[in-house]
């Protein structure tokens, strides 16, 4: 089973457990909203551009609400569990590995870490390494709005760069934690930040991510 499929299955199992009204780390979204977002992303390509392009966001939000409201909770989770339809490019193994692994991992944690008593998962080394490789590619984009320079550092000493500026902050943690930090989940990422107090404070509250 691929990492993407493993994350999809675990996420759907958790969604079934917590129900449609549970909180998530996505501001203003319940689990029903998050599930509808995943269905939209894989089945309504006409609405996908609004996910990252503000002028089209109202249309995307409208489609997402329709998906949420027109399906029962079991149907909605079932669509997420099925994954992309056969005609979707996301169905291709390369796209599944490149795009879906990160998307499903992040949203799985959005549900997990919105609950009391969460702890980081112990991920397979292969998945940690995959997340690190994706992070090295995406860090400059995800950290583009950082108000200070950023260096991301694994516990083994491996580093990758974000925004190059002075002063800078070194953020240390496992790849999954660094990824969540860079995706704007700073308050829920188990990392340590080294730098002057003001720079660390600014980075922890900055609008990071896509």
From TrEMBL:
Per UniProt, residues of the Mycothiol-dependent maleylpyruvate isomerase metal-binding domain are 4-49
Coiled coil, from the record: none
Q: Which residues form the signal peptide?
A: none
Q: Name one GO molecular function term.
A: metal ion binding
The superkingdom of the source organism is Bacteria
Q: Which Pfam families match?
A: MDMPI_N
List the NCBIfam families hit by this protein, alphabetically.
maleylpyruvate isomerase family mycothiol-dependent enzyme (TIGR03083), TIGR03085 family metal-binding protein (TIGR03085)
Q: What is this protein called?
A: Uncharacterized protein (TIGR03085 family)
What species is this protein from? Thermopolyspora flexuosa
């Amino acid at each position: 089973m691929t990492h993407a499929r493993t994350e999809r299955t675990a996420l759907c199992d958790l969604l079934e457990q917590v129900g449609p009204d549970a909180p998530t780390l996505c501001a203003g979204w319940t689990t029903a909203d998050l599930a509808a977002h995943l269905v939209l992303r894989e089945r309504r390509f006409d609405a996908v551009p609004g996910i990252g392009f503000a002028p089209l966001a109202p249309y995307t939000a409208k489609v997402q609400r329709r998906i949420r409201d027109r399906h029962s909770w079991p149907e909605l989770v079932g669509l997420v569990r099925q994954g992309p339809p056969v005609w979707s490019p996301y169905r291709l193994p390369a796209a599944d590995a490149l795009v879906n692994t990160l998307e499903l991992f992040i949203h799985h944690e959005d549900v997990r870490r919105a609950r009391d008593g969460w702890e980081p998962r112990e991920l397979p080394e292969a998945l940690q390494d995959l997340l690190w490789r994706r992070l090295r590619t995406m860090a400059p984009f995800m950290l583009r709005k950082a108000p200070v320079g950023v260096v991301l550092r694994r516990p083994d000493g491996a580093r990758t760069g974000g925004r190059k500026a002075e002063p800078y902050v070194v953020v240390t943690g496992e790849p999954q934690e660094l990824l969540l930090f860079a995706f704007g989940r700073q308050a829920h990422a188990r990392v340590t930040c080294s730098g002057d107090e003001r720079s660390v404070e600014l980075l922890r509250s900055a609008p990071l991510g896509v």
